[in-house]
Amino acid sequence: MPEPPHGDTLQLVAGELHAIGQRLTYLGSLVQAQAAAQTVAAPAPGAAQAPNAPQVPSAPPPQQPAAAAQPYPGLAPQPARPRRLGASLEPSRVLAWGGAGVTLLGVVFLLVLAVQQDWLGPAARVAGGAVLAALLVAAGWWMHRRSRGEATGDAGRIAAYALATTGFAALFLDVVAATTLHGFVSAPAGLGTGLLVSVAGLALADRWRARPLALGVVLSSAVCAPLITQLPDALLVGFLVLLQVAAAPVQVRRGWPSLALAAGVPVVLAALVATAWGSAFHDPVLVVAVSLAVLVGVVIAAITAGARPEADRTAIGLLVAAPTPAFLAGPLLLEAPAAGLLGAGTTALLLAIWAVARFVPAFRGWLSHRFTTAVGAMAAIAAGQTTVTAVDSTSWATALLCEALVLGVGAFLLRSTGVLLGASCYAAFGFLLALAGEAPLTALLWHGDAPGVPGLLCGLLLVAAAVLLPAAAVRVGEVPTSPLLWSATGLVLLHGAASATMAACLLVADTRDGFLTAHILITLSWVVAAIALLLRGVRHKHLRVAGLVLIAASLAKLLLFDLATLDGVARVVAFLCAGLILLAAGSRYARLLKA
Description:
There is one protein chain. The chain has 595 residues and is an all-alpha fold. The protein is elongated. The chain contains 21 helices and no strands. It has helices at residues 6-41, 91-117, 122-146, 155-180, 187-208, 211-229, 234-254, 257-278, 284-307, 312-321, 324-333, 336-359, 369-390, 396-414, 417-436, 442-445, 452-476, 483-508, 512-536, 541-565, 569-594. It folds into four domains: 93-230; 262-390; 393-510, no CATH class; 511-595, no CATH class. It is 77% helix and 0% strand.
């Protein structure tokens, strides 16, 4: 084992010597006080008092300092030494927790085997399991009383925690068996009884301040419950949700992040497995159970983040994991309208938490900035998933671009970088889907692939997004400096304007003349836009460069595409108009430079 550094060794020795000195000083003061009290109370032998001598009041014994109530007054508490890995692998602990796990598995196997072999009858099996669980809890209580005064990690306490864990887990599993296997109680009554058992076990852990007991009750019940139910159904999800609800007050009160994870992760995993299993069956109750699991997970994550800021990372992890079953349950278990409602409910829940933490003065600052940002990001993801689930695939681009505009307006008004990032992501995905759907490049290259009204609307939305998002970035103060981003924005703007122009012309006349007219207008609009940028760029280099690039693109289109595609009058009109506009702009630009 490596020895501590020389400086650390000297500090430890100095601390121990200081502590010994404090203890000796304290013992010396006690001995002096006791000796003085005995001297005053008992006079010296042979000394006779005069009959009429005045009584001299005896001096009261010296009062002990207030700090004497403490074991070692004036001694500052030493920092706790980090626990070594070997300390948790002591034979007593290994034997105690290993015995608890084996005993619990034995109870589970006994219940399963008794059902398979039909031993003693269902009622006797349930009653016997309850009696065994009660005896184990009583033994844990007795062991804890017997080990009073021991430290938390001592063998007696570990044995008490292991016995109590086994008892409460066995009682919880007995309730699960009585509900799912035998049907002695209805589902609501079984869930309520399971909640009471979980609350009792975790309340005992809170009273004993025993995190191992709390973790043992939750994990053992969550791990063994699927062995009893044997199906990932709604009842299993419901029982695990109750475990999470019962653990929430204790983990918030004591600040045990590991308990939050132990109670939250099994619920998410069970909900995901139940959703995949239930895709082959029509079970509305399973949808309700998954929705309840999502609601409880998100709310408990928010409460954990607000009440325990030091557990912020744990709360964010729970927040990210909690809504995932709803993302899967909607497409697999429901039709499109109902799946949209489930996704909209999840989105509304996340948006409500974000809005309360952002705008309500009473709760502003209650949640950390990181957690609030994570809530907003999950709300954006939930909204996107809801859009893809509820809307037909032919309208995905239009729907995402509409959401991008809404978020862009929000970013402009709130001056929020996070909202602007969400709007940019929506716009990017909307543009990529538009290229494959509502506004394809093929509609601009060949006649016959008319986009119609969806193409017109999608093109206008692309133009609006390409204008609004840079304006919001300027207002927020996050103006991108990369030429690549500005070039991508310009391409989106040009494609949107061209698609909208083509769709409008083809809606008026879906003929080759309409197609050629659209290309003439597209070329002239590019030339006009380039000249506007040049005129505005007399004093601004970036606008001047953008105008020159657009002029080059317009001339390239005119010579490479329009010259080969247009014919007759259309070709003459395009070249004449473009040339005259360029000549007029050139003379105007020259006068501006001389001014």
